[in-house]
Amino acid sequence: MRFRMSSRSITSHAEVGALQPDKLTLARAYYSRGIAYDKKGEYDRAIADFTKAIQLKPDDANIYYNRGIAYYAKGNFISAIEDLNKAIQLKPNYAIAHNSRGMAYYAKGNFARAIEDFTKVIELNPNYAYAYNNRGGAYRSEGNYARAIEDCTRAIKLNPNYAEPYSNRGAAYREKGLIDRAIADYDKAIQLKPDLVEAHYNRGRAYGEKGDYDRAIVDYTTAIEIKPKLVEAYNNRGNAYTKTGEYARAIEDYNRAIQRKPDLAESYASRGEAWLHLSEWERAKFDLTTARDMGVNIITSFHNDYASVPDFERIIGIKLPADIAAMLTPQQ
């Protein structure tokens, strides 16, 4: 864990360098002020101070580590990895730097490198529950659900009150089709940490897969309340509303998803199908065409819910216009 300072420390170091102290003292002052800025979420200022500290004391692994973490917080994963590389070069058994670099690799989608780093952390500290959970998440993202479950279970044994590995293991169970086990793990994660957004979101997905759309809607709504920018929650809640026949609400959610992420092709496809239920033919055609142009196979998407156009017309009691029916019918 990094050393933290109160925000008042920024004021105390406002005149850093004014008295021309020796390099070591000045480096420590920049470093301390960088930590304070980082704590306040002022990452650019933190990075500037860490950079000055590095110029004065280029052999200090901790400064590189903290600048790397500030870059990570800004979403600059390449620079984060570069700094963490340097920290590890200076201090090879720097466990927390390996863990943080693993997280940066994970964020870049390089799961194999992430697993290497998390494994190194476990070698250095076999009782570090966070590393097991992180490695479990990387295994899950690789599709290795058995090892993900094993690692998350180990994290839970080391720290039974740690919510994240329950959520992580639940996601692995869901991917394996073990929906009830997944929900049980999400329940436990939420009990331990009620604002854990991914647990609510993924439990919503699990309930949706069970056909319990009302509960899915409740969970997606909670996820949105916790994280209003979670685009996927709007899209998935829209899907749940569609399943319950609340097409106007579904369209509102697809609108919100598209507003936040205009290139979310699946929301156009789903909104197009919702418009069909309301006989809004032009709007449906526009959305379906847009989704198709963005790469969605709208025929496959439609046939995931209905065996054929006549099947849709029979169930819904609506006759589709010929041009839309043609869009949704496989070519012979």
List the helices and strands and how they pair.
Blueprint: H1 8-12, H2 23-39, H3 43-56, H4 61-73, H5 77-90, H6 95-107, H7 111-124, H8 129-142, H9 145-158, H10 163-175, H11 179-192, H12 197-210, H13 213-226, H14 231-243, H15 247-260, H16 265-277, H17 281-293, H18 298-303, H19 309-316, H20 322-327
Q: What is the string of helix and strand elements? A: HHHHHHHHHHHHHHHHHHHH
Question: What is the radius of gyration?
Answer: 25 Å
What is the typical, i.e. mean, pLDDT?
Answer: 94
Q: What class would the helix/strand composition place it in?
A: mainly alpha
Q: How much helix, percentage-wise, in residues?
A: over 70%
Reading off the top of the CATH hierarchy, the class of the domain at 1-125 is best stated as Mainly Alpha
Low-pLDDT ranges: 1-19
CATH topology of the domain at 1-125: Serine Threonine Protein Phosphatase 5, Tetratricopeptide repeat
Number of strands: 0
Major sheet summary line: none
For this entry, give a set of tags.
elongated, Serine Threonine Protein Phosphatase 5, Tetratricopeptide repeat, 332 residues, mainly alpha, 74% helix, disordered N terminus, single chain, 20 helices, 0% strand
Describe this structure in words.
The protein has 20 helices and no strands. Among the domains are: 125 residues, Alpha Horseshoe (Serine Threonine Protein Phosphatase 5, Tetratricopeptide repeat); 101 residues, Alpha Horseshoe (Serine Threonine Protein Phosphatase 5, Tetratricopeptide repeat), CATH 1.25.40. The N terminus is likely disordered. Helix content is 74%, strand content 0%. The protein is an all-alpha fold.
